Amino acid sequence: MSEPAIRLAILGLGTVASGVVRILNGPNSPVSCRAGRSFEIRHVAVRDTSRPREVEVPVNSLTTDWLAAVSDPEVDVVLELMGGTTIAREAVLAAIATGKHVITANKALLAEHGNEVFAAARKAEVCVAYEAAVAGGIPIIAAVGRSMTGNRIVSIEAILNGTSNFILSEMLGKHRQYEDVLAEAQALGYAEADPAMDVDGTDAAQKLILLTQLALGKKVELKDFPRQGIDTLELADMLYAEELGYRVKLLAVARVVGQQLEMHVEPTLLRRERAIAQTDGALNIVELEGDAVGHLVMAGAGAGQMPTASAVVSDLVDVAIGRAQQTFPQLNLWQDDSGLTVMSADQIQRRYFLRFNVEDRPRVIAEVADILGRNQISLASIIQHEAPEVDASENGGVPIVPLVIMTHRTTEGSIRAAEASLAQLSTVRAPHVRMAVAD
Amino acid sequence: MSEPAIRLAILGLGTVASGVVRILNGPNSPVSCRAGRSFEIRHVAVRDTSRPREVEVPVNSLTTDWLAAVSDPEVDVVLELMGGTTIAREAVLAAIATGKHVITANKALLAEHGNEVFAAARKAEVCVAYEAAVAGGIPIIAAVGRSMTGNRIVSIEAILNGTSNFILSEMLGKHRQYEDVLAEAQALGYAEADPAMDVDGTDAAQKLILLTQLALGKKVELKDFPRQGIDTLELADMLYAEELGYRVKLLAVARVVGQQLEMHVEPTLLRRERAIAQTDGALNIVELEGDAVGHLVMAGAGAGQMPTASAVVSDLVDVAIGRAQQTFPQLNLWQDDSGLTVMSADQIQRRYFLRFNVEDRPRVIAEVADILGRNQISLASIIQHEAPEVDASENGGVPIVPLVIMTHRTTEGSIRAAEASLAQLSTVRAPHVRMAVAD
User: Fold this and answer.
1) Which domain holds residue A375?
2) What value of ipTM does the predicted structure carry?
């Protein structure tokens, strides 16, 4: 090992950064051997240097001065593991401007400011590596950016948010309601104190944006495609889906349809036999389709300290060997030459799961079916169970019952038009439920 | 694209090589763009230049003189896609000796002569890339060699032979016997005219040897670990396994147990819920366990023209960019510093599925259970169905019935000792069936 050590500045010393330090500090760590070089932690920038830490870092490396850390000419690589999109953006740009390679796990930063960051890195002839930003320990960035180079990728279907998937698995497995499971997930540390970005689909959508840019050469903004979280999902609908042979997952989809890019992140019904439907707990899964390789599935821990640290370290070894510097300029991150336009929500074609709360009166099903039919929506199946005994004091003694409908393939535009008409029916109570069904 | 073209010599123009040419020739192929260079096919060495071909290669590139093709100083990269271990070995060594990088899909060559080939390449400062040699289109060599560098890999469990898996899926799905499905698979082109290497486990074992060397730094020979194919498997035992909640797969396993390496390729019972148990048809799947990343699963087409060509082209782009040249010297291919010794078959610990054909007489089950017990084997479950009506002229009117036993965890040594004693019982008919059960 005659090569000089790689000198690191680490921004943040939270869960993932501590995991990285743990791997680098490990007894007989295989990492230096595989990199052909050793690693030296020069700076660790934190908010509070006096806080106790779960890992040991070199004496005097702790600092609150992130700018000095990233600007130090004796640093080779900056690991941005602080999160957020303000200081993280400034720090990454400062690191790039002073000639450092950057490794980041920050999907929000890259989804929002990726173009700026990537362009700056390209200009400065440094690289930005971000394996840890998507699907944690699953090496999906490597698979798409390096291993599928002989393919045109035509479809991505994925579970990219472990917190949401954990909550859905618990709801279904233990017949619990959303709020109940969320509270437990927070208590256990699976969900953030503010879980909004996880459960409203933003986190999964940011990861999908990164995958789509890399796989399809198309940069899409959050506002350009439909996104819905699991935070309004009811257990009842998950159970109706099961009754129909489907499982509900927060599915992220990007698919080439002619010259259009169909893209969405939503609770989606998947046939129970599919691997993606059987991915439970905090796991992530990505199913890719390439024109040469066909379907490729990768599954593993989508978050957590050591899996995410594993991804960061793989990037670090790539930089140490010099591979990342060769890979980065060849990635599809520079221009939109895909020729693709993002499909408008109304044009998206698929099957739908609908649940209306209707009065249990004669002709209600006929009225609903008629409105759907007039919007060219044909029905694949209907579930309406017998009404429970009703308290005559409520709703004038008329029971309200759920009417669950599975449609054949139609457009989201037709569904929306039908929904507008259905809202006019006095026998249908708002709100109703609509979920996409995957092919 | 100012860089000069990469000049290729392709050895063989069979299924995979034609797929590679198809990708390189494709209209608006993304490959050159991703490589930053174009590719030029200089030579295609074949046995018969007059045979009609399914793809177009440059005029005058076809030759029978493989030695001249690989030795041409104007060639940069040799693609060894001819198969076999005699001429392929000579050609690869000649290519390396004259300074060419080599890309190969030949698992037999590398499993048998890998040390010689890798050492020659290291000495000549060229690289040998072999993504296509293991699990077809699944980028498992990249995942192990590049993406898991922050991990100690502790376990590999995989389905690595698509032909065997196709046959098993057909047997179970359609209740057909082995010979019957094999004949169909050959007619359909899924199985070779001589399918011996596929169905006797050799092909899967060769791939496991390559994965183990890369992942664990340990070179193992075929003769060093137990290997059994699917060619003696009976449908009846697959159905008994189903009755017990298990599915039979040809499973390749390499697992670190203390300082020992447990390694085997055998028909194995897996709990039906596991992803690996649900991998059907010609698909391959690899489950890795790393100390940081935890479990990682990759599944996809393990063979076939375009998936395998996709893997070859990913290596070709790696060479064009210069990545493969950096990766190769860092791989765990040089010395055995793993400290691991291969566990002897007798020491392997696990549960077993046993099926004996016994006389349907009083005390037979007690005798069998007694012998197992005396060998410290305890029983987890037993299936013995009611005997069918029997033809009194056979076997003196005593029905022969299958006795299926699932043991608790024990050693293979204990099982073998018990088998020797059981063979002495007049009420137990040879042969019996023994299959491993995965945890």
Assistant:
1) 346-437
2) 0.94
